[in-house]
Amino acid sequence: MRRSGGLWICRRPLLSAVQVLVCVGAFMLGSMLTLMSIDPMRCDIHQCTEKIKRTNVEDVNSLLGMWSKSNRGAEKSVFLVIVMLSAPANKDQREVIRQTWLSEEKADTLHFFVIGTGSLNEDLNVTVLAEQKEHGDLMLLSNVVDSYQALTKKLLASLVYVHYNVKFRFLMKCDDDTYVQLMQLHKELKSVPYKQRLYLGFFDGRASPKKSGPWKEEGWVLCDRYLPYALGGGYILSSDVVNFVASNSKYLKVYRSEDVSLGSWLAPMDLHRVHDVRFDTEYKSRGCNNKYLVSHKQSTLHMHEKFNSLKTTGRLCREQFQVRKSYNYNWNALPSQCCIRNDSSIP
User: Fold this and answer.
1) 150, 149, 151, 144: which is closest to 174 by C-alpha?
2) What is the CATH number of domain 39-337?
3) 43: left (phi over 0), alpha (psi -120 to 50) or beta
4) Could you tell me whether strands 170-175 and 234-238 are parallel, antiparallel, or unpaired per DSSP bridges?
5) For the chain, how many helices (H) and strands (E)?
6) For this UniProt entry, which segments traverse the membrane (predicted)?
7) What is the pTM of this model?
8) Which of 31-35, 146-150, 274-278, 332-336 has the lowest mean pLDDT?
9) Which H/E stretch holds residue 111?
């Protein structure tokens, strides 16, 4: 009896150990399956689960260590990704963009309209979801209440999302009131000498922080001017720059202005900052010039006019005109002296 009892006593802890191992194994398997079910690398780029599409920046960062290359699926590989910050109600603008310059989108280009869907009323939410079902090109952020104050968070979330979903060479950020000569831009990017460390756009270095109004920057304490940045109507980043921002997103200070924020995030980096006067991307358009690759502050009527003019005449503008002078950025001067508008011959 003692022998029998002794054997039972010895087997009990062995049985308990087996049970613990089984439980641990089941937990790990369940966790792995859960991660696989939300891993953006394991779903089609246009049909990724709503859970990952609606993941916020903080949630993404909490999973960074778990998304090793060994367990990722096939990436969507393109030359150019375009992210356009849009508002839920701006369906007409998105439709016009799809009908005009995005109609020339090549197979090696991928676009997203980035929209915050937090606190949407029922009617607008239904409209947005119907648009997504029809086009599949919306990046929906349920944790973002869409507003001007949320633009930087939308930008950051979109860069994180693209970083984990797409293999690409360049990324363009623009707004839903921006017109792009897409085919010409493709040609320029194919021949650009900098394939890495590229930050391309229309730069400003002498802007002072806003003290009031919707763009007031209460948290700006770096210096008495904004750090040099490419204006937000449209700019280009190489993939390694996007990767840097996405990988460090939880450490980055979010300012009110998204273009100012990006300039501050990239300020210490050793980059090729390329000022291109063909980017008409300021807070108001400088006019119309056939050399412009990117034109900001365009109405839906202006977009149709530019598209039709290109189709019928091969020129962007029916008539070229200038309402304010441009400038070449002087990188050899102090930022406060960088940007002098004294030459009307500059586009």
Assistant:
1) 151
2) 3.90.550
3) beta
4) antiparallel
5) 10, 16
6) 12-38
7) 0.79
8) 31-35
9) strand 109-116
Angle CA 343–344–347, to nearest 5: 105
3-class DSSP state of 311: helix
CA distance 199 to 217: 23
CA 83-81-98 angle, to 5 degrees, is 60
What is the 3-state secondary structure of 241-276? Answer: HHHHHHHCHHHCCCCCCHHHHHHHHHCCCCCEEEEC
Q: Which residue has the higher pLDDT, 294 or 25?
A: 294
pLDDT for position 19: 63
Q: Kindly provide the b/e burial profile for residues 76-86, where b requires at least 16 CB atoms within 10 angstroms of the residue's own CB.
A: bebebbbbbbb
Domain ranges for the chain, please list them: 39-337
Could you tell me the CA-to-CA distances from 135 to 48, 94, 116 in Å, in that order? 14, 11, 17
Query: CA–CA distance from 84 to each of 12, 110, 235 (Å)?
Result: 63, 11, 11
Residue 191, both tokens: 């021949």
